[in-house]
Amino acid sequence: MTPRERTDVRRLPEKQVRDVATLHAILDEALQAAVGFQVDGQPFVLPMACARDGGSLLLHGSTGSRLMRVLATGAPVCVSVTHLDGLVYARSAFESSMRYRSATVLGTATLVADEEKLHALEVLTEHLLPGRWAELRAPRARELAATTVLRVPLDEWSVKVGDGFPDDPDEDLDEPVWAGVVPMRVAYDDPVDAPDLGPDRPVPPHVLAVTSGDGS
Amino acid sequence: MTPRERTDVRRLPEKQVRDVATLHAILDEALQAAVGFQVDGQPFVLPMACARDGGSLLLHGSTGSRLMRVLATGAPVCVSVTHLDGLVYARSAFESSMRYRSATVLGTATLVADEEKLHALEVLTEHLLPGRWAELRAPRARELAATTVLRVPLDEWSVKVGDGFPDDPDEDLDEPVWAGVVPMRVAYDDPVDAPDLGPDRPVPPHVLAVTSGDGS
Fold first, then answer.
1. Positions of the region Disordered (chains A, B) (predicted)?
2. Which pLDDT tens digit goes with each residue over B39-48?
3. What is this model's ipTM?
């Protein structure tokens, strides 16, 4: 569970974080990951919903998707998750940057077997929509058959965190400009009923918890 | 400026959008992109700041970064931008999804020449920190030398938008659960001064405009 040479951070190595708790926290806050694979030397990157399941990351998609078919053959994959946490206004364009937390996982995906698929879909659903799984009907056999779930082990990874203030050189500190950070976050607005929602279907507490969870 | 075969959307093709204005809008809202490349068959995906400059996308990074060196050789690249706009609560796990807007650009990057670099950095800075460029000192020669800027033409791309409500089959409409959408957005909080900020350096209006721009 330690980063290896090819995942060592080369740029701004002081921003590399090596503890697995930070990796897990970054992944656990992510609803989607950028998943990279290559076909005949052409890289492709596609966004996919993701959820951590212990020491691995679950991805799911349609059984018919090219990405799923390529990855299920054991092709190398790179999964990238990034959270932007703020705009960093330095005294120069050169030092201006962003606050961010990013995780990169290299590895090979394996197909989640049929007998594990229900568990994997529960983990994914509960990660994306916490509290929802228990109130939904069970998946139908044809829905399970139409869904591919992949598991990527969290064996080879790197994490980079930029969480500070502008790091201007001394010679720039007297520049006549403001310097600081504008924090960013994801906010959730009030739930909107589906147009075809029937009567007596109130918004459940777990949905209200998502909406109020951003502190705004 | 039209998508080609290898960028055609294969899954949920009804979500593919082919007009360039939507592509531009998605890119113009993005502060970072997931940039994919491959080395010896291993895909890598790294987050990078990005900005559209007319019919191309600018990326910048350190002259010493591996990504920059690989891409500057004319290696194939894939740039992916995704905005999550909401959680879609359907009546089944299978139909549950997210609202999103995603753009994928395939191509080859070219190095921005020295004489264009200042323009490119202005475009990047003004995209990420609107209004900031004019109040900053000019970049120093060694800062320009330490920065590589790449340009990826927006020639081959695809856009996918999921902006609707749950699309449950009729047989599920009587399920005894709420269904609907929880909208998501990026919110900006109040600016925080740098700890080493000198006196008489008020937060400029362009920064306050970012903070108030999220409507909260």
1. 190-216
2. 999 999 999 9
3. 0.93
